[in-house]
């Protein structure tokens, strides 16, 4: 049986710059995978390539075995790939609820109730403007908006960046609930490697635009030397805006 999603020998970048030099990876339905590596090795570029937001030079992408390499970003999103970019994708001038309604398009209003269930803080702040929210609440709103599209695969680009530990825990626990209760597959890019390894079942390590290690997270947690060899992890910034 084919994987839910597969990248096969993909080379991609921006204009003349090639960032990914033949990346292959797969994600099974409901699986949690983390993509880790040093700064600038191409993790965000991998997510953008999955969404069709980079210049792909070679290789193919498959969704349930079907070649989607030439599908538009909108088509990929409609197929069931949800993308939460690093830049918290919300409307600052709209309230939380208006942001959710705008993200609903033609979907059922019950999806908003589900979003509030997953992120009770958003329900408490439903009448607050996007710009008034803390960094953590903005991230929750950005994730909640993506979930309104009912993705089968959720791409998360450094969701914990700049957030206080308590908010990180809240977010990770919501991602776990999603994965466990709704079978949503997750591809998580995260600089907080320990959090990523505890969340995911499998890890893919990227270096210089190529996969240099792939294995279960339990293997990596049991032998931290593997991670140390591949990643000199940039520590989380001292500040937080949660
Ligand atoms: N829009 C862009 N145009 C041109 N080059 C880009 C663009 N976005 C990223 N790059 C370059 O591509 C390379 C890989 O960047 P990418 O953001 O994918 O790395 P990353 O592994 O996600 O790093 P980080 O952990 O710091 O976010 C870097 O050299 C970066 O400067």
UniProtKB/TrEMBL annotation:
<keyword id="KW-0067">ATP-binding</keyword>
<keyword id="KW-0029">Amino-acid transport</keyword>
<keyword id="KW-0547">Nucleotide-binding</keyword>
<protein>
    <submittedName>
        <fullName>Amino acid/amide ABC transporter ATP-binding protein 2 (HAAT family)</fullName>
    </submittedName>
</protein>
<dbReference type="GO" id="GO:0016887">
    <property type="term" value="F:ATP hydrolysis activity"/>
</dbReference>
<comment type="similarity">
    <text>Belongs to the ABC transporter superfamily.</text>
</comment>
<keyword id="KW-1003">Cell membrane</keyword>
<dbReference type="Pfam" id="PF00005">
    <property type="entry name" value="ABC_tran"/>
</dbReference>
<keyword id="KW-0472">Membrane</keyword>
<feature type="domain" description="ABC transporter">
    <location>
        <begin position="5"/>
        <end position="233"/>
    </location>
</feature>
<dbReference type="InterPro" id="IPR027417">
    <property type="entry name" value="P-loop_NTPase"/>
</dbReference>
<dbReference type="InterPro" id="IPR052156">
    <property type="entry name" value="BCAA_Transport_ATP-bd_LivF"/>
</dbReference>
<dbReference type="GO" id="GO:0015658">
    <property type="term" value="F:branched-chain amino acid transmembrane transporter activity"/>
</dbReference>
<dbReference type="InterPro" id="IPR003439">
    <property type="entry name" value="ABC_transporter-like_ATP-bd"/>
</dbReference>
<dbReference type="InterPro" id="IPR017871">
    <property type="entry name" value="ABC_transporter-like_CS"/>
</dbReference>
<dbReference type="GO" id="GO:0005524">
    <property type="term" value="F:ATP binding"/>
</dbReference>
<dbReference type="InterPro" id="IPR003593">
    <property type="entry name" value="AAA+_ATPase"/>
</dbReference>
<dbReference type="GO" id="GO:0015807">
    <property type="term" value="P:L-amino acid transport"/>
</dbReference>
<keyword id="KW-0813">Transport</keyword>
């Amino acid at each position: 049986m084919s994987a839910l999603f597969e990248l096969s020998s993909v080379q991609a970048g921006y204009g003349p710059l090639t960032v990914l030099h033949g990346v292959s990876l797969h994600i099974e339905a409901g699986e949690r995978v983390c993509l880790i590596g040093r700064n600038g090795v191409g993790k965000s570029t991998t997510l953008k390539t999955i969404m069709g937001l980079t210049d792909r030079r070679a290789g193919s992408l498959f969704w349930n075995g079907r070649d989607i390499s030439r599908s538009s970003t909108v088509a990929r999103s409609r197929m069931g790939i949800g993308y939460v970019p690093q830049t918290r994708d919300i409307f600052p001038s709209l309230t939380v609820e208006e942001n959710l309604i705008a993200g609903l398009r033609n979907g059922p209003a019950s999806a908003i109730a589900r979003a509030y269930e997953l992120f009770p803080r958003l329900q408490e702040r439903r009448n607050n403007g996007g710009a008034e929210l803390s960094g953590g609440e903005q991230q929750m709103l950005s994730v909640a908006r993506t979930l309104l599209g009912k993705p089968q695969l959720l791409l998360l680009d450094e969701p914990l960046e700049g957030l206080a530990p308590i908010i990180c825990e809240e977010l990770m626990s919501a991602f776990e609930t999603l994965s466990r209760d709704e079978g949503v597959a997750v591809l998580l890019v995260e600089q907080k490697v320990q959090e990523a390894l505890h969340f995911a079942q499998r890890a893919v390590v990227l270096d210089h635009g190529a996969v240099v290690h792939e294995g279960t997270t339990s293997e990596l947690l049991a032998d931290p030397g593997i991670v140390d060899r591949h990643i000199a992890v940039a520590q989380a910034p001292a500040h937080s805006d949660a």
